């Protein structure tokens, strides 16, 4: 099962101002599959990254040339801290996950039902409840599903009944396009996982099937130990993802420990970047003044957004920029984590970026800046009615912490977080799993963010506004 974690770009439809016991649904293998779906949407490398747990074969199941994937065989002794019982349990789970069984139409629909049952957050429409969703399961069990297209249609109707425009079905072709959100360039997602002694391990929580890392031998659940010989202990998942990035078709060496208790192995992986740079920048001269302004346009929050914006900011600083303009107009969002990391470039350590809420405790977080800002100069953020999702995270974080003024139009108002799960036939479902509110505790969803200025202000007015904002914050 692949998982993508995101706040997906909204459609441009205007929002309203407020917007007897049955047999088990899943065979044992499907139960394990469903159990391992959710990962943290706001920690780890990113919040929208293509994930796939082996297997998800690209060949048809009934193809005579199809051979099931095999786990590599190792004879190394168990690492310290691993018991034979743990190793045996891991092997049993791997056998279940990698078993190339035929997936029925009923199982595909049931898998989609289970994902919603486990993770869906009703954000105000009040159409979902455990009881009503259980009734959906009863309806599914009583339905004959003769074709795969009928199974997909049934999933569409099931998700549409929730009344959530962002919870929807993805065809296999639509799901495959999500590869542009790979942040590492080698087709893996990394997450920070706590161990039994209070430390943190960096684990592969998914990988693109037949992608660079998967082809080289990286597997779901592997622990990342080093990148190009550099020990990654103590680094964040986002930092390690950045280490893995590099020019297209160049090579990176990644050292992993297979599974929880397996051997270590160094693997050479060729990078294959899908994302294109979303950043455009230039230095502008203020008329009748020696002051220079660094203009940066960010078109979307993809895998390269933070890295390329950082480069732009540094170059503009070196060129003498005294002020900055961050243009988020028509930016519909993308990677939540990229938005969070970009906000950190402007905020002081300890300042709140966003609050998140969800059914699962892992979505109930106070996300704060943990590094010193790259720039401290006054900032204007340009917004309009197509500024949405991750763009609104950045805009509200800079605005509420008195780092920037907002100029333009009220933003779109999408404050929801989706996870995108791949079903075992290569299709997928997008499910709303959480929402976020601004540092000033405003619910963005359905409301948007009101700008400080409708027209472009003088820089003296910008500085005055930010000074007053900081004075109010300090009481």
Task: Give short descriptive properties of this protein.
475 residues, 6-stranded antiparallel beta sheet, disordered N terminus
N-to-C CA distance: 50 Å
Strand content: 15-25%
**SSE succession:** EHHHHHEHEEHEEHEEEEHEHEEEHEEEH
Unreliable stretches covering 5 or more consecutive residues: 1-5, 8-78, 92-101
Radius of gyration: 23 Å
- Please state the average pLDDT score: 78
The total strand number stands at 17
Number of H/I helices:
12
Shape designation:
globular
| Class computed from helices, strands and strand pairing | alpha+beta
Main pleated-sheet profile: 6 strands, antiparallel
Q: What is the helix fraction of residues, given as a range?
A: 25-40%
Structure in words:
The chain has 475 residues and is of the alpha+beta class. The protein has twelve helices and 17 strands. Strands 1, 2, 12, 13, 16 and 17 form a six-stranded antiparallel beta sheet that branches. The longest helix is centred in the first third of the chain and has 15 residues. The N terminus is likely disordered.
How is this structure best summarized?
With 475 residues, the protein is of the alpha+beta class. The chain is built from twelve helices and 17 strands.
What is the secondary structure topology, with strand pairs?
Layout: E1 3-6, H1 28-35, H2 84-98, H3 105-119, H4 130-141, H5 148-160, E2 168-170, H6 172-176, E3 188-194, E4 200-207, H7 212-216, E5 223-227, E6 230-231, H8 237-244, E7 251-257, E8 264-270, E9 279-285, E10 292-298, H9 305-318, E11 323-327, H10 336-344, E12 352-358, E13 365-368, E14 379-383, H11 390-400, E15 404-408, E16 416-422, E17 428-437, H12 459-473
Parallel strand pairs: 10-11, 11-14, 14-15
Antiparallel strand pairs: 1-16, 2-17, 3-4, 5-6, 5-7, 7-8, 9-10, 12-13, 12-17, 16-17
Helix pairs in contact: 3-4, 3-5, 9-10, 10-11
């Amino acid at each position: 099962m692949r998982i993508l974690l995101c706040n997906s770009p909204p459609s441009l439809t205007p929002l309203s101002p407020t917007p007897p016991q049955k047999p088990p649904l899943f065979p044992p293998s499907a139960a394990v599959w469903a159990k391992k779906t959710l990962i943290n949407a706001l920690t780890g490398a990113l919040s929208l990254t293509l994930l796939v747990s082996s297997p998800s074969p690209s060949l048809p199941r009934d193809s005579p040339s199809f051979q099931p994937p095999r786990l590599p065989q190792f004879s190394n002794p168990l690492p310290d801290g691993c018991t034979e019982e743990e190793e045996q349990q891991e092997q049993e789970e791997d056998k279940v996950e990698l078993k190339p069984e035929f997936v029925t139409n009923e199982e595909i629909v049931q898998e989609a039902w289970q994902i919603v049952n486990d993770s869906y957050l009703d954000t105000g429409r009040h159409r979902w409840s455990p009881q009503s969703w259980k009734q959906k399961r009863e309806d599914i069990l009583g339905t004959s599903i003769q074709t795969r297209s009928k199974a997909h249609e049934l999933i569409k109707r099931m998700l549409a009944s929730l009344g959530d425009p962002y919870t929807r079905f993805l065809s296999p072709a639509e799901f495959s396009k999500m590869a542009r959100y790979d942040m590492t360039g080698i087709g893996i997602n990394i997450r920070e996982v706590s161990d039994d002694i209070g430390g943190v391990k960096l684990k592969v929580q998914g990988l693109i099937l037949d992608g660079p890392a998967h082809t080289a031998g990286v597997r779901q659940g592997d622990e990342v130990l080093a990148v190009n010989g550099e020990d990654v202990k103590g680094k964040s998942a986002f930092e390690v993802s950045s280490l893995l990035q590099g020019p297209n078709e160049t090579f990176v060496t990644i050292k992993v420990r297979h599974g929880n208790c397996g051997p270590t192995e160094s693997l050479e992986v060729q990078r294959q970047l899908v994302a294109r740079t979303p950043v455009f920048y230039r230095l502008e001269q203020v008329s009748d003044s020696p002051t220079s302004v660094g203009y940066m346009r960010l078109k979307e929050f993809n895998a390269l957004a933070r890295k390329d914006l950082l480069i732009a900011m540094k170059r503009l600083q070196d060129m003498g920029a005294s002020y900055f303009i961050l243009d988020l107009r028509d930016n519909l969002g993308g990677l939540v984590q990229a938005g969070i990391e970009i906000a950190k470039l402007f905020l002081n350590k300890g300042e709140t970026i966003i609050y998140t809420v969800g059914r699962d405790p892992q979505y109930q977080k106070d996300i704060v800046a943990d590094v010193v800002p790259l720039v401290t100069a006054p900032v204007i953020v340009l917004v309009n009615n197509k500024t949405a999702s991750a763009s609104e995270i950045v805009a509200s974080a800079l605005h509420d912490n008195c780092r920037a003024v907002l100029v333009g139009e009220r933003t779109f108002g999408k404050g929801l977080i989706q996870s995108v799960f791949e079903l075992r036939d290569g299709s997928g479902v997008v499910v709303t799993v959480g929402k976020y509110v601004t540092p000033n505790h405003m619910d963005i969803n359905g409301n948007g963010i009101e700008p400080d200025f409708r027209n472009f202000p003088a820089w003296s007015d910008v500085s005055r506004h930010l000074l007053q904002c900081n004075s109010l914050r300090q009481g």
